[in-house]
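Customer escalation, tier 2.

The customer says the design service returned an amino acid string that "doesn't look like it belongs to this structure." They asked us to rerun it and document both sides in this ticket. The original structure tokens are below, unchanged.
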């Protein structure tokens, strides 16, 4: 057995939003982690832009939602505008549902921000150690853990870290995924793009019609920060090393713009589209882009990865603290992989729909001969960015979800995990617990944390049913809320730490051991 220089419970590889979110969640469970990142610092590029309501609910739990909102754009930027050039009128637009305005289904509102503004807040949300400039160059699996070799390229030194589990959030080109021999399915690389970060005064075309993205015939323009800054996103030219990026941006703005861009940074990247064939290899677990690369259209990629971390971290805590059996970690892939496939299909469809809008505009110009934009019928109706079914309507089907009224802990619901086309709040097992206001400023979602939560209008009846082997809290539901959740006056919901309903008793417990058996069934442990 190789000698390790350091030992932790979970080694997190990658300092993007997914790795940083996992670090914050695991610290709340008291899990000892080390996060390693091959770069010397957080990424300076804006990258992901949209934080949806589901992710903001996770960040609310971490105490970050207010800070993220304060650093983000105001709600009116939650819109996509389509124009021939940046200074033309819109020929189409679409609001980002849950960002452009509050929605009754959530206690929070999503935001448009830049990843380089989000990541420092996530980094500061936990005290667990991080090691930048440390590249994982090898992984060896053992019976009870993983040993990773870390290379400090600046110093030329190598060290070893032993961990009980390794969480790989190291991107679409994940070396860890490659070392496990895990393949991928899906379209694969779709196109090469370049992001150019620049400064220019574009306010005269955008100040009165704000948006998070302006899609034009010459690339997309994205405001980066409330105080200024822009990014231009376009296909990578044939000879990028010798490209005149300032000239290209200026030409993309249009001949009437008369603006010279001051280029600050340039990044080339590939739009990938795939899902890993497996999310777990022994004690190595994949999350975020390492598990699924989602095209950027629709803002689903980062948010899907954050949901991965939220789904996985309570399972890791249970395995490490002994209140979960070894099979609970297997349900991570069972629940998240179907969602990843469905999300990938939606993102590819979003991309096609965006191209359809541009194609319709070109046809309009060709047939009318009038360069003045007029409104076109959007091809996506309510689907583009109105993705509440995909974001909030996920239903998990696994051994960690019990069918209605099942107290013996061995009968998960039928079918596989997935999301609904449209979101309808429901308290069915496997679904995310609906947002209901328990008191002023306190949502049902605020009741969930590093424990299981029993929601019931009759707490006295259920508090008598001891389940000391698991972290558990009991919360009172009003009769009105119980009715909305399909419960009688004696009924109850057992909510997992990730906010998904693990079991429901609509008419009360069938016997004194129902709660204990349900917790044992969900966590894959003996129910003694």
């Amino acid at each position: 057995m190789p000698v390790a220089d350091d030992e932790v419970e979970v080694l997190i590889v990658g300092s993007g939003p997914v790795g940083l979110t996992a670090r914050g969640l695991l610290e709340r469970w008291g899990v000892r982690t080390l996060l390693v990142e091959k770069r010397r610092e957080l990424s300076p590029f804006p990258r992901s832009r949209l934080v949806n309501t589901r992710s903001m609910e996770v960040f609310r739990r971490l105490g970050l939602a207010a800070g993220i909102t304060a650093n983000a754009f105001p709600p009116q930027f939650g819109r996509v505008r389509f124009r021939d050039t940046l200074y033309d009128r819109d020929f189409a637009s679409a609001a980002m549902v849950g960002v452009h305005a509050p929605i009754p289904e959530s206690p929070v509102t999503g935001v448009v921000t830049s990843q380089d503004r989000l990541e420092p807040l996530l980094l500061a949300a936990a005290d667990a150690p991080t090691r930048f400039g440390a590249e994982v160059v090898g992984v060896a699996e053992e019976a009870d853990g993983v040993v990773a070799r870390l290379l400090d390229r600046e110093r030329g030194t190598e060290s070893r870290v032993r961990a009980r589990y390794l969480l790989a959030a190291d991107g679409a080109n994940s070396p860890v995924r490659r070392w496990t021999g895990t393949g991928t399915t899906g379209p694969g690389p779709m196109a090469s793009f370049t992001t150019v970060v620049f400064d220019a005064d574009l306010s005269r075309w955008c100040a009165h019609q704000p948006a998070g993205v302006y899609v034009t015939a010459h690339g997309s323009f994205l405001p980066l920060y409330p105080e200024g800054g822009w990014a231009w996103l376009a296909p990578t030219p044939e000879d990028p090393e010798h490209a005149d990026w300032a000239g290209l941006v200026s030409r993309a703005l249009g001949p009437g713009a008369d603006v010279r861009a001051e280029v600050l940074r340039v990044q080339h990247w590939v739009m990938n589209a795939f899902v890993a064939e497996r999310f777990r290899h022994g004690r190595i677990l994949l999350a975020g882009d390492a598990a699924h690369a989602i095209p950027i259209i629709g803002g689903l990629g980062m948010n899907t990865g954050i949901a991965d971390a939220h789904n996985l971290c309570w399972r890791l805590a249970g395995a490490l603290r002994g209140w979960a059996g070894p099979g609970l970690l297997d349900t991570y892939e069972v629940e998240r992989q179907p969602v990843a496939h469905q999300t990938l299909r939606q993102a590819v469809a979003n991309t096609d729909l965006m191209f359809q809008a541009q194609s319709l505009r070109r046809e309009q110009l060709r047939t009318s001969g009038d360069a003045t934009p007029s409104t076109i019928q959007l091809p996506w109706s309510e689907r583009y960015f109105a993705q509440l079914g995909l974001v909030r309507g996920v239903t998990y089907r696994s051994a960690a979800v019990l069918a209605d009224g099942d107290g013996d802990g061995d009968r998960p619901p039928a079918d596989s995990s997935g999301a609904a086309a449209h979101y309808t709040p429901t308290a069915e097992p496997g679904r995310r617990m609906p947002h209901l206001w328990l008191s002023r400023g306190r949502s049902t979602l605020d009741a969930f944390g590093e424990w299981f939560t029993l929601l019931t209008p009759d707490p006295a009846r259920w508090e008598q049913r001891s389940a000391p082997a698991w972290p558990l809290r009991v919360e009172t539901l009003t009769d009105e809320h119980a009715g909305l959740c399909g419960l009688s006056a004696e009924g109850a919901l057992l909510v997992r730490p990730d906010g998904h309903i693990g079991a429901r008793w609509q008419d009360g417990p069938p016997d004194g051991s129902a709660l204990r058996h349900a917790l044992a069934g969900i966590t894959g442990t003996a129910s003694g």
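Tier 2 assessment: The sequence is consistent with the input. DSSP finds 13 helices and 26 strands in the chain. The radius of gyration is 24 Å. Sent an explanation to the customer and offered a walkthrough call.
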